[in-house]
Sequence to fold (673 residues):
Amino acid sequence: MPSVRKLRAPRVSTLPVLGIVLAAGLLAVEYSSQATQWAVMTDELQTSKLATSIGETLSPVPRIHGAYYGALNQLYPLLLAPLYRWLSAPAAFDGAHVLNAFLLASSAWPAYLLGRAVTCRAAGGYFAAALTAFTPWLVLSSTLLTENAAYPAFVWAVFLCHRALHEPSTGRDAAAVGALALAYLARTQLFVLAVALLIAVVALDRRHAFARHRLLAAAYGVGAAVAVGLAAAGSLSRVLGNYAGTVQGDVLPAGIWHAAAVHLDEVVVGTGVAPFLLAAAWAFTPWRREARAFAALFVPLVVLITFETASFDLRFTPGGFTQDRYVCYLAPLLAVGAAACLLDPGRRALRAALVLAAGLAFAGLAAAEPFDEEITLWWASPAGAFHRVLRDAAGAIGFSADDLVRYGGLVLAAALAGAVWRLPARASLSVLGVALTAYGAYEAQYVFDWLAVPGTTRLQTIEGAPRDWVDAALPAGASVALLPSAELAPEYWWDAEFWNKTVDRTLTVGGPAVFTPFASTDLSLDPRTGRLRGDESPGLLVVDDEAPQVRLAGTVLARARPLALVRPRRPYRAEWVVTGTEPAGWARPGKPVRFRFFGGPAELDVSVRAPFAATRPQRFVFRGGGGVRVGSVPPGEVVSRRLTACRLVTLVARGRVSLHLDRIVVRPASGAC
Fold:
């Protein structure tokens, strides 16, 4: 009789970790599952399209609009691929937000393993797990950003790298190499972990580094050889994909030290200050090998991630805005370092003195950032979005937020120094762990409540229509192209592609009106015949149905105003075109706007709107087909005029401000030209 292996219950020591994961996941899913709209474009559109591509082609090669796209952060799209393969886009979106909550919360598990390995105590693991899971960056579960997978992947990678440093072996070296690859595929930014591991190996094992890490040395050797070959071919930067530009030019621009201090401030305050003070003091006093192994990894990682992020934001983020989501990876490092500081035996007086020194250093760092500033870009800077609470709390006691952070940090440093020096380690760890967990949970709940939920439950761009109205009108496997116009806001086109899996191409006429960085196909228009030349493979198009610059001949299959799904006639031919407008469909005073028709006489019906900024009614004139229509439109109102012509109608605004073309309707007219 075959033996039956009994299922074992989880070990008692793991139950608190499971509780932490469940609690953090439930906190996040309570809010993230409410999302009905995207938060940041075009990042979330990129994620959904990459996931759809993987699901439909079963290939991990990043492709969008049928072309290779250099987004190498494929781990998160890979995790979402089953959802986007089998569910509608709105259902996949909903499922992804539930998954996000538990992905971020799952980072507590490797944090527990890492904390336990470094401190040699389960209590250290619990402390690290709770502080890793309950952070303000938990609100990123309301987005389709790669941090949802990259955060837990990073903690796993650090844990596996620490194992290789602590007790070197071929198997652990192989696991570390795999972890580096995982972190890189989770987020390209995390390639710095490979640099930090190399520094840690050399710092820890010195002249014995090669002998103890032969497989790791071989992997770095192969990587160096490949890098030399790519450099010789001028293609080294391609290993970073779309982020190749980040290693070009001046990577340490003016202001880098100040920007680094601001980024570090954000993560320090976002984690409650205490983990930084304790971890910074401990990093210089470890004595056991497992502790020294982590310290050797901790120091270069903090430096590299901080400066890497500061350099990126200075050079590529508008206004040099501080995006603290890029430094959220420091939170688990600080949590483990803080646990080690409290639990490691010996050198308590020295550590207490170093905690005080860290407090003074933080007071200086905190002077680099104004904490009174109100930040509303919650998805870019979740910790920064909590500044309003600090400002209100400071105001309640007659302080500024800056003073509260600086002087509060000094008081906290003094209290922690006393605890490290005199109080029982386990009691200090328990009290601090509960307080910091509550602080992190409150931060997350606040940003969810005040910013994330309102931002992701706003009204639909097109009200009264299903979000996936294009997919609903077509069979599975259909292919639809967008034909964007500058007259409509980008949100209309983003929504059409984001919520509909069948929308997988973009066409343009003459090159303008592309609202994404993805591949597009340009069509050229013959102004004499209305014929469009170029790739006509898309048999279905989503077009502007209200005031387009180009109206193609074809059959309308579905409408969600102001958009329409059409089946264009082959070959592509324009029924009419509009030229001379400014971006977004404005007619400048004195500049003619021309409506050109192809295929016989037509009746033109145009709705013209004057902005509220106008101080008096604005005049306009239509001419065409031998007729003239004169009118005026009061500020903030809309006026319509009709005119029949064979080939051309001209509109001229005669006032002092531009007029907007709200709606254009062209109907066939009787008669001959």
Remarks:
- The two ends are 93 Å apart (CA to CA).
- The mean pLDDT is 92.
